Amino acid sequence: MHPRRPEGFDGLGYRGSGREEPGPGARPFGGAAEASHWVTTPPDIPGSRNLHWGEKTPPYAAGTPLGAAGLNEEPSLGAGGPGAEQLNRFAGFGIGLASLFTENVLAHPCIVLRRQCQVNYHARNYHLTPFTIVNIMYSINKTQGPRALWKGMGSTFIVQGITLGTEGIISEFTPLPRELSHKWNLKQIGGHLLLKGLTHVIAMPFYSASLIETVQSEIIRDNPGILDCVKEGIGRVVGMGVPHSKRLLPLMVLIFPTALHGVLHYVISSIIQKLVLLFLKRESSHSLPTESSTSVQTMLDAYFPELIASFAASLCADVMLYPLETVLHRLHIQGTRTIIDNTDLGYEVLPINTQYEGMRDCINTIKREEGMLGFYKGFGAVVVQYTLHVAVLQLTKIIYSTLLQNVS
Question: Where are the membrane-spanning stretches (predicted)?
């Protein structure tokens, strides 16, 4: 129940904003001039630091260290006339949009297969490699049509919107900080993580409804409305709506694993993103600009480090927390009378009839009946998803470089 892109490592890195003022005793980070070079963005939006009109991402390869006097000047991200300048204006938007499209649209079939494999305790084929995942994707597409691989995509956007809105509302009416200042302390970190946990808990019933939409077999389900996710989530809270079996776990049992997964994913992705950005910044600082350095490379170095860091952060968090995500999805789906596709054959359907009593019982049962690899069912879909993401980013980089060279 987390966005697949970290939130600009809030709390572990500085994010400038014209709307924020340093508190008492806080040290300004490079002054007002530097703040104009940093982009303030809403959290959880992939590539969001490059999506805001007229704002600039700090050029890591510009050769000017952060905090130096050179930051008072506009970064020269390329020459070559009005064509290059106009292309530069849309560069960040285009690159960020490509990343956004890949993560939330193009990779959705991988998410569908990944979740179906995770909750399928019947499966004998664990689909640990991308080759078997591609094969089962082809089989499902052949028997049910392409619609079967894109089911539930609208509900995933709704859950992300609910998560963002809930976090914003809670931070406005409580002292819990949505972002942390550069000089943070343990109390601020605790409040910040508490905000993340509360956000995931409030969005939890809607996440359950979205999960059902993404794993429910297309063969037996009706066409869901765009707001069915919201209706089912509210019905889950008040105890009304679609009838469930007695094996349905109470929401109170789901609070701890849901909040734990969401907070851990945020912490891991934030740390990884910060470390990767520091590494990229250090590498770029060694190569000072020369007369032979091209404007193309300078502009690419300005826009791509954050996308690379966000990609690495999301990948590491997904891989490290994959076993916990498997347990979480099985707990959420239990007792909902969901019918899923047979991921061994690509046709036929299977019922979900698990009887886990809670998180600990689910872990012990998977370990006993399916082995340790049972926690990694469908892992090949993660490989396909991030391979696809790398390919799209690389293609975007090639196209952007070609366009810049043509207008220079």
Answer: none
